[in-house]
Fold:
Amino acid sequence: MASRSLSRTCPPTPLKAVPSACAARPIIKPERKRWICPPGLQLSFENEPSWRDREFIDEALGVFNAPFLQDPSYSYFGLLIRDASGTIRAGLIGSTYAGWLFTQLLWVAPELRRIGVGGGLIREAERHARSQNCHSAFVDTFSFQAPGFYRRQGYREFARLPYPPSHDRIFLQKQLEAADAYAP
Structure:
């Protein structure tokens, strides 16, 4: 069944009354048609797609993007800090692509926070990015996580979304300086 809403459809006329033909009238919105796969194909919704499937899509998109990019090389990496038993105590997961470093995940155990561990991980990721010829870096964080931390590392906000409810998702970027690169 189509939904109905009321709307005024005529522009305002400042010197004379609105004609009765332009009074509020119902607008019928068409129902959305369900998308249908092309013949011979099947759509599947997968809650937890495999890493292999994700890599397939990622690589196929990379092939499409490559002709448009000056440098289409890609690096997916992790910087992990482990204790003597091998337990991860802090880590950063990131990637470099098309001249940019993206810090996807950064976590530091509570007892290691505020002593330079997170900043050290960021600096090592940026050093790797410079070795990959990256000129800039970006990250996103929630307002209840670490926006102040990233600002102290030289990142500046460039976008904000009101998400999740009652909080914000904040996007930050930084220009990388050419010094201090190393090969992996």
The first strand starts at residue 4 and ends at 7. The chain has three helices and eight strands. The CA atoms of residues 116 and 133 lie 26 Å apart.
